[in-house]
Design a protein that fits this description.
Aspartate Aminotransferase, domain 1, Aspartate Aminotransferase, domain 2, 2 domains, 3-stranded antiparallel sheet, 14 helices, disordered C terminus
Amino acid sequence: MTRAAISFLPGPAQLHPDVLVALSRTPAPHRGAAFLEDVASIKAELRALTGARHVSVMLGSGTIANDVVAAQLRRSDERGLVLVNGEFGERLSDHARRAGATFDVERLPWGVPFDGNAIERALAAHPAATWVWMVHLETSTGVVNDLPRLTTLAHARGMRIAVDGVSAIGSISVQVGDVDFATAVSGKGIGSVPGVAIICHRERVTPDERIARSLDLGLYAGAEGVPFTLSSNLIWALSAALGHAAKPGRMERLATVGAQLRVELERRGHVIVAPVESAAPSVVTVALGADECVQAFGDALAARGILTSYRSDYLVRRNWIQAAVMGECTREQVDTLLAVWDEVRGREPVRDERARRGHHPLGGVAAHL
Ligand SMILES: *Cc1c(COP(=O)(O)O)cnc(C)c1O
């Protein structure tokens, strides 16, 4: 195998060369005027991407960003509600519990979306809840929960809204201007290296001495945005990646490529976990049959240079394997994935029967996009 491996992992993303250039520059002091300007401009770019009113950045992964939000939700001492339909929803409930928040949990089976009706039922069942926390793109299943509906319904009840946008922001179009707290990271959909945790927030947040310093959003929101050491290289790399991630048409292109992947896998008889009307094009989760072992299959793909996601406990337990289309991904790379997939399964490539019968192979999915 001479070809370089192609990554269909949700992270680390496939890096644009500009990101690597940014990483190799000589670091700038984090209190220097030039760097503070760079931080201000990355925040402006993130506001433009998400519609957020305020953005704070800090060193860390998505887990840290969600801990920061948990600490804010805990501040009020009021009861909340966490919506769970996958691994990352379960983690939000764990974040809230560790922060000492008081809350209820509404669960749906993994793979079942929180659509408008499910959200309405959940909110109605918990009239005392003053805040609600949900994952937007549930990375474990590829399901997109309906954030616009949550925003409308929760506001009608006067609730505050928090959303985990870690795998959504940068990979699908997300608007969080009316959301109280939304998290994102540098290393997934936006397509930089991991290391910058991003919090979008609706209000100016003030510091709170009951919160650990490193998790206190109020400290990051003040102090020109840099209360502690921040890596200039990670900020520059994020800026370089954002420059490409925010280009017009990119998300639509990735959505097309992801939808093609889904259609091709379904034509091979595979079960895709997320129902098509709530599926993220950027994460395709395949439930393998009982006769196929996800570890052996994923290892065989990896040995042939195709990196997929199948090692996490929650995937192994369900015999699920995932191909993520985040950062940079082309139709040619998807075709390579499919060719290797067929080779590993030892089958003839599936002939495009529907195309020959005059149907556009993307018909239904493209209409949904
Ligand atoms: C990856 C992920 C996280 C955790 O992020 P880390 O960067 O691994 O800490 C949280 N939520 C969602 C939806 C994710 O996809």
